[in-house]
């Protein structure tokens, strides 16, 4: 089952494309890491999936429906934006009561347990909480809504290392217990490596690579050997990145075939290695999209 599907999706702000020719399928029941530099289109993709924005071109579906198309669709998708919005004049308890009124699948036990565990005072106004505490409150509301798909835009950016670890642990337990699907953007690849089993890398508003983390790592290799030109590599070895020193060449390739050249030393990659290679590698040239009318 696919929980998020995009076909040739694009979003344009005035003259600039924030997202172009985005085609992807996100499987249900997974935690998907959404990675890319600032301005790559991560927040735009999440806002489109939540129904906060409308596409300029192409199509997007979330949980089998058009994002933001009605109350039933809105109930299926939870979204915590990058600035973790809360209402400064409302207390923590007010936020939970509001969440219960607005969300038909609200799980008050989860909300109350999490507030107690992270030490938020129910009587405290949100405007007097620290940045990390506001983030925790917004995350609690997103989880307690019990959506089918939870979209998180840089959810741990304002949290200290201990709070990040606790949140990620909570997230994994929620996914395991309730089959929740998550798409989470983050610059912290080490955190994604702990929890994500699916990956999307966006660069310059385009999808560079997407797929199951295990499959992607299994299909990539680092080749190290004496300095040489790489035009002699077999056709089945797609070059992702290459670097040279005076005496050595290092190439990252994507291939399903074994590496038979004995001149190469072959090693596997970590998720961080893989992400950095695609972030720094050349972006394939594609024709510009036209605005659909």
Automatic annotation (TrEMBL):
GO molecular function: ATP binding; ATP hydrolysis activity
Domain ABC transporter: 4-229
Keywords: ATP-binding, Nucleotide-binding, Transport
SMART domains reported in the protein's UniProt record: AAA (SM00382)
Superkingdom, natural source: Bacteria
PANTHER family linked: ABC TRANSPORTER ATP-BINDING PROTEIN ALBC-RELATED
Listed name of the protein: ABC-2 type transport system ATP-binding protein
């Amino acid at each position: 089952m696919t929980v998020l599907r995009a076909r040739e999706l694009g979003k344009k702000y005035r003259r600039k494309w924030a997202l172009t020719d985005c085609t992807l399928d996100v499987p249900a029941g997974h935690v998907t890491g959404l990675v890319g530099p600032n301005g790559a289109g991560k927040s735009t993709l999440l806002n489109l999936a939540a129904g906060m924005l409308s596409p300029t071109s192409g199509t997007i579906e979330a949980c089998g429906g058009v994002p933001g198309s009605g109350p039933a669709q809105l109930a299926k998708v939870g979204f915590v934006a990058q600035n973790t919005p809360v209402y400064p004049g409302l207390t923590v308890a007010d936020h939970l009561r509001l969440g219960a009124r607005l969300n038909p699948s609200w799980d008050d036990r989860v909300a109350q347990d999490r507030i107690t565990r992270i030490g938020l005072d129910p009587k405290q106004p949100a405007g007097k909480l620290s940045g990390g505490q506001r983030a925790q409150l917004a995350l609690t509301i997103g989880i307690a809504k019990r959506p089918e798909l939870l979209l998180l835009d840089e959810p741990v950016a304002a949290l200290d290392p201990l709070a990040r670890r606790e949140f990620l642990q909570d997230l994994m337990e929620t996914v395991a217990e309730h089959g929740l699907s998550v798409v989470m953007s983050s610059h912290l690849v080490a955190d994604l490596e702990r929890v994500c089993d699916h990956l999307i890398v966006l660069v310059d508003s385009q999808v560079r690579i997407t797929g199951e983390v295990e499959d992607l790592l299994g299909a990539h290799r680092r080749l190290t050997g004496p300095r040489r030109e790489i035009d002699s590599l077999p056709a089945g070895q797609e070059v992702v990145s290459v670097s040279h020193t005076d005496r050595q060449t290092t190439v990252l390739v994507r291939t399903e075939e074994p590496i038979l050249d004995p001149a190469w030393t072959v090693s596997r990659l970590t998720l961080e290695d893989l992400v950095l290679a695609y972030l720094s590698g050349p972006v394939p040239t594609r024709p510009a999209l036209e605005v659909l009318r």
